[in-house]
Amino acid sequence: MNHILLTTDENFAQHCGVCIVSLLKNNPQTEFEITVAVMGLSQQAREKLEQCVLNFPNGTLKLVDFDEKKLEPFPQIGAYRKNIYLRLWVDEFVAEDVERVLYLDVDTLVVDTIDELFNRDFDDFVIGAVDIPFADCHHRCHLPLEYGYFNSGVLLFNIPRWRKEHCRDDILNFLIENKEIATNPDQDALNGVLYQNRMTLDSTYNVITPYFRRSEYQQLGHDELVRIRHEAKIVHFNGLARPWFYSCNHPYQRKYFEYLALTPWRDFTPQDKSLYTLLKKHLRILLGKESFVQLSDVKGI
Ligand SMILES: [Mn+2]
Questions:
Q1: Gap from CA of 239 to ligand 1 centroid (Å)
Q2: Distance (Å) from CA 153 to ligand 1 centroid
Q3: How many angstroms separate the CA atoms of 80 and 187, rounded?
Q4: What Pfam families does the annotation carry (predicted)?
Q5: pLDDT in tens, 45-69
Q6: What's the predicted TM-score (pTM) here?
Q7: What span, in angstroms and rounded, lies between the C-alpha atoms of 83 and 102?
Q8: Architecture of the domain spanning 1-301
């Protein structure tokens, strides 16, 4: 049994459901116990999330209510809401004997098999995560230059070590000491505390938005960019590239709606959908002004 953690509030429940469906649909040979830690979620949204797993024999869902009081000592930084810290309680959301948990941001889609993450040797690490190329956060986060800086949207947790080494307490201390500089709060703190105990996962496990822009990450080289786009396993709609906005031209927007159709939120209509945005969306592509590559370019279809 493989364990997955997601966290959501009412606003992101739909995206959480889409992410769950994408995971189960693309990993039919793997069984998952999915824990969703929630804060202030309506009964209606709870029922919808539960319905998301019903058509899949390979997934069970457990909703856990998070006690907001636990967040009190954590600083509120910038525009970030404190619910970004929920993932840090990963060890409390799963049973005592669980050793490995994959945390997924709800703005991700699982688009391929990921069972390899659960089978690889991981004992020497506390966490597994994907590098952000050319991240310029080392000075800000007091990181030695030889270590990469990882994105916190996809995290593989070694639960016994996370628990034993009191990582959550260390992260809280880091945040209290560095609240002026930790402008990506949870991500900076995870990097700041765990950089020496992190397994670097291949970029295909957290393909962030810039990989799909025509003009970004060119320094990685054409072959590497094409490899990561083609072999993407987890796509992360980070930054402003939200597929639930109609005007977004991220190549995986189509996939978002494909999985959305398998959830109780299937009747969702993007707020910005209009004749104007429809024309603009397609004209951008026709006129060669779109910064995103197309899914046909990515997958050769
Ligand atoms: Mn995210």
A1: 8
A2: 5
A3: 12
A4: Glyco_transf_8 (PF01501)
A5: 999 999 999 999 999 999 999 999 9
A6: 0.96
A7: 18
A8: Alpha-Beta Complex (3.90)
